[in-house]
């Protein structure tokens, strides 16, 4: 079988398999929540697959090759800091993301600051994600072109068409299921190729001896330094990979929200980070070095015609056909896995930040499903246009730098509420304009200062200094007691509570203490819910558990809040505030799970005659309270925990007591 035929069959089989998986998961989607967040059912192993797939994507892989060949092994290996950032994200940021509960990171910006800030960040995020979709598709097409001569533009169209099919039919469920196949494939194939090379071509000594003597090879620190702020600096790339890429990205925010619990989300990121450190950090740079050593004369740096980003294609032609063809197939598969997720994230940005605000503000999740799909297709079209305008490396650097603007604002705000609505907006706009101006004016090249430093400098400087001289929200003022004393509660003015505010108080009383729970309860935009929450906080009906990180989005009732529930007859007496307090819907789910252990959310919804979008929040709260537990690799199967059984027994006891009282009254 010829190289072309084998490649076509392999790629075709992989793409067909991905498409079939997406079609099979279509039946799991009943709302935009299922479409964007996979019904919040994703397990730790599936989440790890989705995150790790990013490491196999062609934009990352191409940079591994460029860095290894042009600058040496150690600059390429330094990209492993990405995987450290994943671990840190799981251990530190995931809890806050899930307490906030918004589907996209930009919703948080409006909740914390205002809509202009959200819009500015949304635009930067949207174009950043589109840049990386374009870069990855172009990179995958370039590898196929270098390996088998496939024309780049038609290949890009084919790849993006498959991405469109996965997104259109499967949403994040389709992406998540395809991640299983694609990530396992990558974790097996690339290490297998490295083992083959070390056994049948030559070990490490052979590799060192055959890398051209005038190349940086395995010397340390290679072609990079630790003192400059340019594009050949370990410090610059460390900041871009560790800070800019991860913490302010909708991609990771949405992934964290799709997990079935906080622990699952944390474990998924930690597992992905550990696997990335153990495999990707070593395997990909070594494969690039083998590609260089096997045919050094082929590359532009040695007088040839192949650019460094074509290294893995050259490597694939230098080993037996049956093994070599698996390399481009692997890159195609991993790219589709990653960029389908990026399309979903982009669609969520447009849907929630613009469409739902200006076109369909009253639409429910089921009605937003079709617009989600249409927006996804439009994102793919725009991404294709950018593949015709910019090259891979330029797209990747713009992507990373744009995301850095959002990342630094979030990291500062987690620990210091210094930025105001005005200063955050001005910081975001200045960062965006600074990046574009510094890049396209040529100042980055002429000064030797990378645009990421301009972005971060402007964002931090204007955000912090502007925040110090402009008015901030009440909770950032001097003298504000986060956890109020009894005197502070009594001094606060009474307010007439809206129905929505009573629902928030009831949510807290029944274990839904996080801002995410309020969003699920009220089904209103996050900024409107935040207005209700802040009024309750100022009037001392509730208080935040702290000012930092996840505690800022977790709440408790004050005595005034408890009295308000009793006065409004939402609960009967103060004795209602017990560890077993649940509302009627929570009780219904507990009883259903008790009757049918192992039941999935679709069947619970059918039993309750409610859509999944109404039932998932109830399940999430019961999981948070540890009344039920979930298991299952793909779909979550529910069962009662010991705490759930105790709660059910308490409910049964209460029912029996009520019946006895009625019988006594009748007698």
From TrEMBL:
UniProt cross-references to Gene3D superfamilies, sorted A to Z: Sodium/glucose cotransporter
GO cellular component terms, A-Z: plasma membrane
PROSITE patterns: NA_SOLUT_SYMP_3
Pfam families hit by this protein: SSF (PF00474)
Compartment(s) of residence: Cell membrane
A GO MF label: symporter activity
GO biological process: sodium ion transport
Membrane topology: Multi-pass membrane protein
Keyword Transit peptide: no
Transmembrane segments: 6-25, 46-74, 80-98, 119-144, 150-173, 180-204, 234-253, 269-292, 312-334, 374-392, 398-416, 423-445, 451-470
Main location: membrane
Keywords, sorted A to Z: Cell membrane, Ion transport, Membrane, Sodium, Sodium transport, Symport, Transmembrane, Transmembrane helix, Transport
Entry similarity comment: Belongs to the sodium:solute symporter (SSF) (TC 2.A.21) family.
Protein name: Sodium:solute symporter family protein
Protein species of origin: Natrarchaeobius chitinivorans
């Amino acid at each position: 079988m010829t190289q072309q035929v084998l490649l076509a069959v392999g790629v075709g089989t992989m793409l067909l398999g991905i498409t079939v998986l997406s079609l099979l998961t279509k039946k799991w989607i009943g709302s935009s929540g299922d479409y964007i967040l996979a019904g919040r059912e994703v397990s730790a192993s599936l989440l790890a697959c989705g995150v790790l797939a990013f490491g196999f994507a062609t934009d990352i892989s191409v940079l591994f090759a460029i860095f290894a060949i042009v600058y040496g092994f150690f600059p390429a290996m330094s990209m492993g800091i990405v995987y450290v950032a994943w671990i840190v994200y799981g251990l530190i940021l995931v809890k806050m993301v899930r307490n906030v509960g918004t589907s996209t990171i930009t919703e948080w910006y409006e909740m914390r600051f205002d809509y202009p800030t959200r819009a500015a960040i949304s635009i930067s995020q949207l174009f950043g994600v589109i840049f990386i979709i374009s870069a990855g598709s172009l990179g995958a097409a370039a590898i196929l072109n270098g390996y088998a001569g496939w024309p780049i533009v038609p290949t890009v169209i084919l790849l993006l068409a498959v991405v469109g099919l996965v997104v259109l039919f499967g949403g994040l469920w389709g992406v998540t299921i395809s991640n299983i196949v694609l990530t396992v494939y990558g974790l097996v194939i690339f290490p297998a190729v490295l083992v083959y090379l070390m056994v049948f071509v030559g070990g490490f000594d052979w590799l060192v001896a055959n890398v051209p003597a005038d190349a940086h090879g395995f010397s340390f620190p290679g072609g990079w330094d630790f003192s400059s702020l340019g594009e050949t600096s370990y410090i610059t790339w460390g900041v871009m990979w560790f800070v800019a890429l991860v913490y302010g990205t909708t991609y990771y925010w949405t992934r964290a929200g799709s997990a079935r619990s906080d622990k699952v989300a944390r474990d998924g990121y930690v597992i992905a980070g550990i696997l990335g450190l153990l495999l990707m950090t070593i395997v990909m740079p070594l494969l690039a070095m083998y590609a260089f050593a096997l045919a050094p004369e082929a590359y532009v740096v040695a007088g040839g015609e192949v650019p460094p980003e074509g290294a893995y294609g050259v490597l694939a032609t230098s080993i037996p056909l049956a093994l070599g063809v698996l390399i481009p197939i692997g890159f195609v598969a991993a790219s589709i896995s990653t960029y389908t997720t990026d399309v979903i994230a982009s669609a969520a940005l447009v849907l929630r930040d613009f469409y739902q605000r200006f076109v369909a503000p009253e639409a429910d999740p089921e009605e937003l499903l079709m617009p989600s799909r249409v927006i996804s297709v439009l994102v793919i079209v725009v991404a294709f246009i950018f593949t015709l305008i910019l090259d891979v490396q330029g797209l990747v650097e713009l992507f990373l730098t744009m995301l850095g603007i959002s990342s630094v604002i979030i990291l500062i705000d987690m620990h210091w509420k210094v930025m105001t609505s005005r200063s955050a907006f001005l910081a975001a706009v200045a960062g965006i304009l600074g990046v574009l101006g510094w890049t396209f004016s040529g100042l980055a090249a002429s000064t030797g200062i990378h645009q990421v430093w301009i972005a971060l400098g402007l964002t931090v400087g204007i955000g912090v200094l502007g925040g110090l001289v402009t008015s901030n929200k009440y909770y950032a003022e001097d003298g504000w007691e986060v956890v109020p004393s009894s005197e502070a509660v009594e001094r606060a003015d009474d307010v007439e509570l809206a129905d929505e505010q009573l629902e928030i108080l009831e949510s807290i009383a029944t274990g839904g203490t996080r801002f995410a729970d309020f969003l699920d309860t009220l089904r209103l935009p996050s900024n409107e819910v935040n207005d209700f929450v802040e009024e309750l906080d100022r009037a001392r009906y509730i208080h935040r558990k702290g000012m930092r990180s996840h505690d800022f989005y977790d709440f408790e009732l004050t005595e005034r809040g408890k009295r308000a529930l009793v006065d409004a007859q939402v609960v009967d007496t103060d004795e209602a505030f017990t560890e077993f307090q649940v509302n009627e819907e929570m009780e219904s789910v507990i009883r259903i799970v008790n009757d049918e252990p192992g039941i999935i959310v679709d069947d619970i919804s059918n039993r309750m005659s409610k859509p999944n979008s109404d039932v998932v929040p109830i399940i999430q709260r019961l999981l948070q309270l540890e009344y039920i537990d979930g298991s299952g690799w793909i779909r979550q199967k529910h069962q009662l925990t010991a705490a759930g059984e105790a709660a059910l027994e308490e409910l049964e006891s209460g029912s029996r007591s009520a019946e006895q009282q009625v019988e006594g009254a009748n007698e």
